[in-house]
Amino acid sequence: MKQFQSWYENHHQYCKDWKARTGGKIVGYMCTYVPEEILYAAGILPTRVLGSHEPHDVTEPHIFGMYCPFCRDVLAQGLKKRYDYIDGLTISQSCLHIRQAFTSWQMHLPLEWSYYLPMPHHVQSPRAVPFLREELVSFKKSVEEWTGKEITDEALDHAIDVYNTNRRLMRQIYELRKAENPPITGLEAMYMVVSSQFVDKADHNKELERVLQNIDGRLADREVGTRLMIIGSENDDVAFMSMAESVGATFVTDDHCTGSRYFWNEAPQDADRLNALAIRYVERPRCPTKDWPERSRIPHLLSMAKEWGVEGVILIQQKFCDPHELDIPAIKKAFEEIDIPTLFLEFDVTTPVGPFRIRVEAFLEMIRGEDLF
Amino acid sequence: MTQEYWRWKENNWKSADKDWTKAEIVTAGIDVGSVSSQAVILADGELYAYASMRTGSNSPDSALNAITAAMEGTGLTLDKIHYIVGTGYGRVNVPFAHKAITEIACHARGANFMGGNKVRTILDMGGQDCKGIHCDEKGKVLNFLMNDKCAAGTGRGMEVMADLLSVPIAEVGPMSLEVKEDPPPVSSTCVVFAKSEAMSLLKQGWPKNKVLAAYCSAMAHRVVTLLERIGVEKEFFITGGIAKNIGVVSRIEKELGIKAIKSEYDSQIAGALGAALFGKALVEKGGKKK
Questions:
Q1: ATPase BadF/BadG/BcrA/BcrD type domain: from which residue to which, for each copy (chain B) (predicted)?
Q2: Which of A198, A232, A240, B67 is most buried as measured by Cβ atoms within 10 A of its Cβ?
Q3: Please, which contacts does A148-154 make with residues 24 or more away whose CB atoms are closer than 8 Å?
Q4: How confident is the model at residue B1 (pLDDT cuts 50, 70, 90)?
């Protein structure tokens, strides 16, 4: 389990070592709608580009002040040359903020290859799968032209298998969090999922299997406290998770693109591999940029909360994240209707631990209804 | 030395007729806020003594300073207090407290004591933040909302304005009500912007009372928008230092169309009072009693 944290803390070193070890190419991706399997099948390591949670001002000339802190933090990492080992960069259409980080990166930093994938927004349309399939054909072709190698069906099958295994194993671990004493904390789950976004999935799978072998009875003595779920935009804010779990709570599940949304569903079996991938990405738990006209996410969130025995929900959004902001009132209302209270917090590059702590503690006091009266 | 107009008066009070030595349970609440620290001592759940002091750079010292001022002349010592609850921004740094409880819970409990069990919506206007709280008839929190990362609508903002205009802080409210009609408010989203606007108004020749009216209106509007996000019930109570500023309170009441419930107690002690009441409940429920 410590391995995930160590990977998280040494993201860049892991990638550099991987490159030295394999001689392969590394592609940074900026959104989890990117079909990593195609890159992996080409022998490329996809690595998610994340922020560093440090205050900085290098993005000021390049990106609007009212764009979300995450996309600014991501671009800052590029400008500070922290991803100087990546050979290419890609993004799938999700929101305009992160897309500006992508275009600015293309403009200011050297890249052998870059690709903007028009992932359809209207994923609820029956035309979304054929649309995406055709886009994946172009994406695959572009990767092949860049590397000079054909991506075979066998390679795709292998990549899909490795990725599906990763999803299945993480899902298995999430299932165990339904227990009265979850064997892993929310912080550990975050390290696990976020590290899976840049570690070679074959390495990650081995570690997941090791963890699963030794998970029985793990954290049996830890005080669980209030069972929380955290929902919202990109979140790898380990300082926040750690603080919240230190004041009498445990995150038992989540809905983040750095959490369950990333790995929840597998690619189906299909002789047409790109069609299988199109189905997988169209049907995955949705990001609010794509979840319309129905809010299909809400029934999923509510049933997850019931199954995982959630007592309170923390709703977070990166400041200025309009898609999440638009969904939050509806999500809040849906939870209140089933008597699960919610707490809304707005995240920024750095974590204001003190002000967040008071909110979280007061929220927990409210839920626990301690014998103070 | 030039006068510091923001300096509100530190104070303490003790009951003239109560005697802690006759009480079965003596509890205390210490509220270490960002600007002020209060200590409240209860003898069998009744208000016995309190103090309201400025918070220094060190929370443990501020807590000790407040409780020492509250105990002054009573013969009480820390070891004679059965249970001490710390609250406020520095709640986890009160070394002699038995438990820390958030100021949100404590303000709701304190308001329930001060304004009676009819109180349902509480506005706490503190030194560096501002909260809207809903509670039940016992003073238990049902919902709450806090302002984010901004000093507008807080005591610190008012202190800045008092200093700028050279008006002692206690006179700000009454002076702001001298105007016949409220001028347009200054910025309600940022103290720094509000201060620059106030400076330019002064340069334009506005009298102090008019500038203060513009600032008090802005502050009232600011907290009303916070309250409207959470909803306001007519059983409404205001706690915290700004509750003493009639210029802000009357404008909030006007904007909401609701009169705040009046209380005989000092609005600043609500948090510490709630903490001390929780202390008493904890002793009765089998907690620590020396």
A1: 29-279
A2: B67
A3: A149/A42, A149/A43, A151/A38, A151/A41, A151/A42, A152/A41, A153/A273
A4: very low
Shortest alpha-carbon distance between residue B278 and chain A (Å): 6
Strands (E), chain A: 26-29, 45-48, 88-92, 113-117, 226-232, 249-255, 312-318, 342-347
Mutate which of A358, A359, A363, A367 to disrupt the B interface (most B C-beta within 10 Å)? Answer: A358
- CA–CA min distance A341, chain B (Å): 9
Please give the ipTM for the structure prediction: 0.89
Q: How far apart are CA A130 and CA A135, in angstroms?
A: 9
Burial degree of A163 (CB within 10 A; 0-12, 13-18, 19+): buried
Does the beta-carbon distance from B105 to A366 stay under 8 Å? Answer: yes
Distance (Å, whole) CA B149 – CA B88 = 17
Nearest chain A residue to B131 by CA distance is: A359
Task: Give the one of B146, B148, B282 whose C-beta lies nearest to A372's C-beta.
Answer: B282
What stretch of H or E contains A355?
Answer: helix A353-368
The shortest CB-CB distance from A372 to any of B144, B148, B278 is to B278
pTM of the model: 0.93
Q: From the list A359, A369, A373, which residue is nearest B281 (CB)?
A: A373
Q: Which of A217-231, B100-114, B145-159 has the lowest mean pLDDT?
A: B145-159
Which run of H or of E encompasses B195?
Answer: helix B191-203
How much is the average pLDDT of B96-111?
Answer: 96
Domain assignment of residue A320, yes or no: no
**Structure tokens of B186?**
């200054």
List residues of chain B with CB under 8 Å from any CB of chain A.
Answer: 89, 101-105, 109, 129, 138-144, 146, 148-149, 278, 281-282, 285
Instruction: Judge whether A346 lies within some domain.
Output: no
Can you point out the beta strands (E) in chain B? 11-14, 26-32, 36-43, 46-54, 83-87, 99-100, 121-125, 130-135, 141-146, 236-239
- Percent of chain B scoring above 70 in pLDDT: 97
Separation between Cα atoms, residue A48 and residue A31, nearest integer Å: 8
> What is the chain B residue with the closest CA to A361?
B102
Residue B149: Cβ within 10 Å count: 10
Q: Note the pLDDT tens digit of each residue in B199-246.
A: 999 999 999 999 999 999 999 998 999 999 999 999 999 999 999 999
CB contact at 8 A, B92 and B103: no
Q: How far is B101 from chain A (nearest CA, A)?
A: 8
Domains in chain A, number: 1
pLDDT tens sequence across B54-101: 999 999 999 999 999 999 999 999 999 999 999 998 999 999 999 999
Q: Could you give all domains of chain B from N- to C-terminal order, each with its CATH number?
A: 11-110+269-284 (3.30.420.40), 118-260 (3.30.420.40)
Q: Residue A352: its chain B contacts at CB < 8 A? A: 149
Range of the structural domain that residue A44 is part of: 2-155
Q: Is A89 domain-assigned?
A: yes
Residue A29 belongs to domain with CATH number: 3.40.50.11890
Task: Name which of B89, B104, B138 is nearest A373 (Cβ-Cβ).
Answer: B138
